[in-house]
Automatic annotation (TrEMBL), chain A:
InterPro entries in the cross-refs: Fe2_transport_prot-B, Fe2_transport_prot_B_C, FeoB_GTPase, G_FEOB_dom, Gate_dom, P-loop_NTPase
Family: Belongs to the TRAFAC class TrmE-Era-EngA-EngB-Septin-like GTPase superfamily. FeoB GTPase (TC 9.A.8) family.
Domain FeoB-type G: 1-161
Membrane topology: Multi-pass membrane protein
Sequence intervals crossing the membrane: 274-293, 341-365, 385-407, 419-445, 451-471, 515-536, 566-587, 594-619, 639-663
Entry keywords, A to Z: Cell membrane, GTP-binding, Ion transport, Iron, Iron transport, Membrane, Nucleotide-binding, Transmembrane, Transmembrane helix, Transport
Signal peptide: none
Pfam families, sorted: FeoB_C, FeoB_N, Gate
Function: Probable transporter of a GTP-driven Fe(2+) uptake system.
Gene: feoB
PANTHER family, per the entry: FE(2+) TRANSPORTER FEOB (PTHR43185:SF1), FERROUS IRON TRANSPORT PROTEIN B (PTHR43185)
Official protein name in the record: Ferrous iron transport protein B
SUPFAM superfamilies: P-loop containing nucleoside triphosphate hydrolases
Domain of life of the native organism: Bacteria
TrEMBL record, chain B:
Protein name per Swiss-Prot or TrEMBL: FeoB-associated Cys-rich membrane protein
Bilayer-spanning residue ranges: 6-22
Pfam families given in the database record: FeoB_associated
Keywords for the protein's UniProt record, in alphabetical order: Membrane, Transmembrane, Transmembrane helix
Superkingdom classification of source: Bacteria
């Protein structure tokens, strides 16, 4: 089995390449930090295994996830390294390539996104690059599969066929060279370390690589440890960087060729002038989200959802009822299946169109390259709060699911900032809350559905940012993470990537319908059909009613006058979608239309909005609470997020209803 | 449909629902990967290594 490690800067298209080459499909996004852990796949019909490593700018890690790559190189020796670079950003990309080439493992460099480079009117002479760098150089365009057949042929070969590479030797200043040589010689002689590896490890150690320094301490590599103070005092690190940079500049100047046609004006920079404009940037960002909700709720999602509901609550429900009566099912079983499962689980499944349209929109934004601009635009606001644009990425991912959002916070290097981002993530409106928004906006705000949902999403962001500011002051977080975002060229989104991305995000919802939503619906059916006296026919005597009525006085100040939504809220902790299915069961309705009419009768616009705000911000679901606990390493933070969510949501919902009542 | 079959179907539904709730609570206690619905490569590798410890 031949092992190929895929390595490169963030957002150079490694994962797209990985997906094209192997039999696996991994999540891709046209922005930084999508690959957090390494992934393994096999090239189809071959014995070549490909390992996709997270994107890094250098082997000297800054963040937690970046150390994955250096640790991998320290502990494993791949047969071949495929260094994926962004052809338009070669100067910066080669800084990493040089470090890898110094290792002496066979390397193939591919200039990916070669089309973008051509559009800018430049090209590189591949032979010149190859002879200067001492390894084969290829060009690819992973998105439209250009150059992949050739690359695949390079990778699918037996271990014995791979030509060995001698390590790249740069002309470091004399003192540095001497230090490297001395250390490498002693490591080879005294510790029996392979000469190439010893040379590389010496350079990395001198270059202040934290992971390598830790490695040297663990293995007690005395030739390095004893000289540490000397290396640092002489500032060898700066000299190494300067030598590398001037080597790269020199190589690129020699290899650059001008293309004849420079007619193609970079459309990207034209678009960027508008969308990242200091004043216009933010309204455009809001506008794009508004458009997304218009598509999801008003134009495509809701009409489709209506048809689906008609089908489930009409023919399916009637047929199931008739069938169960015919086969002699007990009334209790019939009620469980028809009024419980079909009405409840089906009641959530009818929101598939809205959710999938929204996910498709988010995937299009990711794949087109706009998300990086959004991070840049929000960076200015985040800066005022003390966070930076980097925190925006986990927050946006949190729109899909808070759990993945919190996991994405790992890319933030400062522990305090990471904790703050984790704590505010549950305030982002995840997709599981969409069904309940949908029901209420259809009932009480039929003409302004998109606007109301947009306001809830932004209220979530505002609360998250305000809380971030508060935490920032309390934690006295002074250190700041560095936010570097690469603005990739815009792409026309590719249909298969959009479909894959949408399906990837949406399949979790369908899976949940068969598992936790199903379970939640059965639970609420039980609670609403049983009471202290056993099986009840009057729902008012059920446990659900008792529980709701006990809590009703607490919810009265925020405008709730019936017990049903309160009982539904309790089941929402299992998964937020369950609130919708519970409402369906508790209001004893079999179709969406009837429930909407029922909600319309029980709520005013003001109390409905207050309830939606409460739903947006109250207790996170089980999965999120668990993730907070494991990512912060403490049950206290998980408990805190539950309590703070309740306090904030109640206060806001209370204020909205009370102040609103005074004004109206 | 006999009474027994009725009871059996009811037990099946309740049993499955109970198991799902139990699983959700257990998964959320494990946190991170387990609680997340994405079945990514890293997670598959993790699950595999749990099944066949080296």
């Amino acid at each position: 089995m031949t092992t190929v490690a895929l390595l490169g800067n963030p957002n150079t298209g490694k994962t797209t390449l990985f997906n094209e080459l192997t039999d696996k499909y991994a999540y891709v996004g046209n922005w930084t930090g999508v690959t957090v852990e390494k992934k393994v796949g096999q090239i189809r019909h071959s014995h070549t295994e490909v390992i996709d490593l997270p994107g890094v700018y250098s082997l000297n890690p800054i963040t937690k996830d970046e150390s994955v790559v250096t640790n991998y190189l320290l502990g494993n020796s791949p047969d071949l390294i495929l260094n994926v670079t962004n052809a338009s950003q070669l100067k910066r990309n080669l800084l990493l390539s040089v470090e890898v080439l110094e290792l002496g493992v066979p390397v193939i460099i591919t200039l990916n996104m070669i089309d973008d480079l051509k559009r800018s009117g430049h090209y590189y002479n591949l032979d010149t690059l190859s002879s200067k760098l001492g390894c084969p150089v290829r060009t690819t365009n992973a998105r439209n599969k250009e150059g992949l057949t050739e690359l695949r042929a390079d990778l699918v070969c037996e271990q014995s066929e791979i030509k060995p590479n001698s390590p790249l030797k740069l002309n470091y200043p004399m003192m540095v060279n001497q230090a490297i040589r001395q250390a490498a010689d002693s490591l080879t002689k005294d510790y029996k370390i392979d000469a190439k590896f010893a040379h590389w490890i010496a350079i990395q150690y001198i270059n202040h690589n934290k992971v390598v320094r830790k490695y040297a301490t663990i293995h007690q590599l005395k030739p390095l440890l004893s000289q540490k103070a000397y290396y640092d005092a002489q500032k060898f690190e700066d000299q190494i960087f300067e030598t590398r940079l001037s080597f790269i500049e020199n190589t690129l100047t020699t290899a650059t060729e001008q293309l004849q046609s420079t007619k193609h004006v970079a459309l990207t920079s034209k678009i960027d002038k508008v969308v990242t404009h200091p004043i216009l940037g933010l309204p455009i960002f809001v506008g794009i989200f508004y458009l997304m909700f218009k598509l999801s709720f008003d134009w495509i999602g809701t009409p489709l959802s209506g048809y689906l509901d008609g089908f489930l609550s009409g023919p399916v429900s009637t047929w199931a009822n008739q069938f169960l009566t015919q086969v002699g099912a007990l009334p209790m079983l019939r009620s469980l299946i028809v009024n419980g499962l079909i009405a409840g689980v089906g009641g959530v499944l009818v929101f598939i169109p809205q959710i999938f349209v929204l996910f498709a929109c988010i995937t299009i934004l990711e794949d087109s390259g706009y998300m990086s601009r959004a991070a840049l635009v929000t960076d200015r606001i985040m800066e005022m709060i003390g966070l930076n644009g980097k925190a925006f990425i986990p927050l946006i991912i949190g729109f899909g699911c808070n759990v993945t959002g919190i996991m994405a916070a790992r890319t933030i290097e400062q522990p305090k900032e990471r904790l703050i981002t984790t704590l505010i993530s549950p305030f982002m409106s995840c997709s599981a809350r969409l069904p309940i928004y949908s029901l209420f906006v259809a009932a009480l705000f039929p003409r302004h559905q998109a606007l109301i949902v947009l306001s809830l999403y932004f209220l979530g962001i505002v609360v998250a940012l305000l809380m971030a500011k508060v935490y920032h002051i309390i934690f006295q977080a002074e250190e700041h993470s560095v936010f570097i975002v690469e603005l990739p060229q815009y792409h026309i989104p590719r249909l298969d990537i959009v479909w894959h991305g949408t399906w990837d995000k949406g399949k979790g919802f369908i899976k949940k319908a068969g598992t936790i939503i199903f379970a939640g619906t059965v639970l609420i059916w039980l609670l609403s059909n049983f009471g202290v006296s056993g099986y009840v026919t009057q729902i008012d005597q059920s446990f659900a009613a008792n529980l709701g009525q006990i809590l009703l006085p607490i919810f009265k100040p925020m405008g709730i006058s019936t017990w049903q939504p309160i009982s539904a809220l309790l089941t929402g902790v299992l998964a937020k979608e369950v609130i919708s299915s519970s409402m369906m069961v508790l209001f004893h309705t079999s179709n969406q239309g009837a429930l909407i009419a029922m909600i319309g009768g029980s709520f005013t616009t003001l109390s409905a909005y207050a309830l939606l705000v409460f739903i947006l911000l109250y207790i996170p679901c089980f999965a999120t609470i668990g993730t907070i606990k494991s990512e912060t390493g403490s049950a206290k933070w998980a408990a805190y997020s539950v309590v703070s969510g309740l306090v904030i949501s109640y206060t806001l919902a209370f204020l909205i209803f009370q102040i609103g009542s005074l004004l109206m | 449909m006999g009474l027994l079959i009725n009871i059996f179907v009811l037990a099946l539904i309740f049993g499955f629902a109970g198991y799902q709730i139990y699983r959700a609570v257990k998964r959320s206690k494990q946190g991170k990967c387990a609680a997340c619905d994405y079945d990514c490569e890293a997670k598959k590798m993790l699950n595999q290594s749990k099944k066949h410890p080296v």
